[in-house]
C-alpha cells in the first residue's frame, strides 16, 4: 500500500486550496438547505437521557440559478472524525481527513432573487447506510435533484456515527442499536413518516426552508430510497406508510427478521453482487407490486456513496482503493444510479411501472447493469 501513502502525501501538499465535488449531471441547478426537524412525540430509544428525536436533514431542490457557490462538503468536526474512522474500518493506510476537509459542494447561491427552486416536484427521502452520515450522499443526491426531484437526505440519531447540529452539539452512534434484531430500521421508517407529516406542515417547512415562505409541500408524490440499512428502511417505510409510493434499496441486506408485511408499492433493488441477496429472496413473496433486482458490475458495497467521486474530484485515482470502492468510474456510477432510480420513481408516480430503460428498451446505455430478477411489470 506504499502507493496510497505516496498519493496521500502528494494530495496533502496540493489540496490546501480545496477542491470541488462534481457538478450535478441533470438539467437543473440545485439548491441545498440544511436544518433540523424535531419529533416531540418520540424519544430516541438509544439516547442516554429522554431526548426528542431530532432529524438533521439536507434538502436538495432543483432550481434555476444565476450563480453557483461552493459550500463545505461536511463540517470540519465531521471530517476530522471520518478520516480515522474510515481508515480503521476499512484497514487502509490512508487517513482521508484532508479529502473530507477540503471537499466543497457546488450549489446554487441562495442570494434572494438569483435562484428559483422549481415548484411541485416529486420528493425523494434518502436514508444512509448504517452508521453513515447523510453527508456522504450529497453528490448523488444533487445529481438526482438536478433531474427535477426534491431530495431530502436524513441523519438518523444514534445511528449515524456523528451528527453535528446547527447549534454545534454532536450526537454519536450508539452501537447497542446492533443488539436489536432489526437494528434501527423501524425507527428509520418512523423518521420517514414523520418527515412526510412535516412536509404538509407550513409552519415546520417555513422554519426548515426560510427562503421558501410559509407553504406546505404536496405529499402525493413522495418515495424513499437508501443505501444499505437505508435501503431496507425505505422498504419498511413503504410497508407502513402508503404515502411512500415507491422504494429503492441500494445494496441493503435485510438483517434480522423484520416481519415484513405485504408491500404493493414498486421496489427496486441494486446489488454489487453477481447473485441475488438471500435476504431479498426471502422477502420477495411479500412484494406484490413491480419489483426488479439490478446488478452493477465492478462495484462493491461502498461504490454506492460519494467517496469514490470525491477521490477523483481531488485529482486522485480510485485504483489503490479498488478493493473498497470498486473499479467502476465514479461518475458513471452516479449517472446510472440517477438514471435507474429516477426512472423507477417516475414510473411509480405516473402509475405505470417503468419507462423504457427499466423495460430493457435502451440496451447499450448502461452495459455494466444487468437484470438478475424482475416481476410484475
Ligand atoms: C445506548 O442505548 C442504550 C439502550 O437504549 C442506553 O441504555 C444507553 O444509555 C445508550 N448509550 C449512550 C452512550 O447514549
Ligand atoms: C490490515 O492491513 C494490514 C496491511 O495490509 C495487514 O497486515 C493486516 O493484517 C490488516 N488487518 C486486518 C485486521 O485485516
Ligand atoms: C407543525 O409544525 C410546528 C412547528 O414545528 C409545530 O409546532 C406544530 O405542532 C406542527 N403541527 C402539526 C399538526 O404537526
Ligand atoms: C469491469 O472492469 C474491467 C476492468 O477495468 C473491465 O475490463 C470490464 O469491462 C468491466 N466490466 C463491465 C461490465 O463494465
Ligand atoms: C439549467 C440551469 O439553470 N443551469 C444553470 C446552472 O447554473 C449555471 C451557473 O450559474 C448557469 O450557467 C446555468 O445556466
From TrEMBL:
GO BP annotations listed: lipid catabolic process
GO terms of molecular function: 1-alkyl-2-acetylglycerophosphocholine esterase activity
Signal peptide: 1-17
Keyword Repeat in annotation: no
UniProt keyword annotations, A-Z: Hydrolase, Lipid degradation, Lipid metabolism, Signal
InterPro entries: AB_hydrolase_fold
Known EC number: 3.1.1.47
Gene3D superfamilies (UniProt xref): alpha/beta hydrolase (3.40.50.1820)
Name of protein: 1-alkyl-2-acetylglycerophosphocholine esterase
Lineage of origin: Eukaryota, Fungi, Dikarya, Ascomycota, Pezizomycotina
